[in-house]
Amino acid sequence: MAGVLQSLGPWSWVVLGLVLMGLELLAPGVFLIWLGLAAVLTGLLDAALGLSWQTAWLVFAALAVVAVVAGRLLMRARD
């Protein structure tokens, strides 16, 4: 399985993001969508910049925090 993910390169992040967004449909709660968005953005950055796996994980972690905080603020403003 790890070999398949490595062969996908940046697309593995995009696939992970789409899977997380799909899981949001099964377990609504508006949380996984933000993690999925962070994963897709990480994949796009990885494709554009050729990030190392360590840097990609750091970028994902930072984007996930930013996306979740922004999502919570959007949901709070909406309510």
Label this structure with key terms:
79 residues; 0% strand; globular; mainly alpha; 4 helices
Task: Describe the fold and architecture.
By secondary structure, the protein is an all-alpha fold. It is built from four helices and no strands. It has helices at residues 2-8, 11-26, 32-49, 53-78.
Low-pLDDT parts are none
- How would the global form be characterised? globular
Rg, rounded, reads 13 Å
- Strand tally is 0
Strand content: under 5%
Helix/strand-derived category reads mainly alpha
Number of helices: 4
End-to-end separation in angstroms reads: 42 Å
Mean pLDDT: 86
- In sequence order, what are the helices and strands, one letter per element? HHHH
Which quaternary structure do these chains form? single chain
How much helical structure, as a percent, in the residues? over 70%
Largest sheet: none
What does this entry show, briefly?
With 79 residues, the protein is mostly helical. The protein contains four helices and no strands.
SSE inventory with pairings:
Blueprint: H1 2-8, H2 11-26, H3 32-49, H4 53-78
Helix pairs in contact: 2-3, 3-4
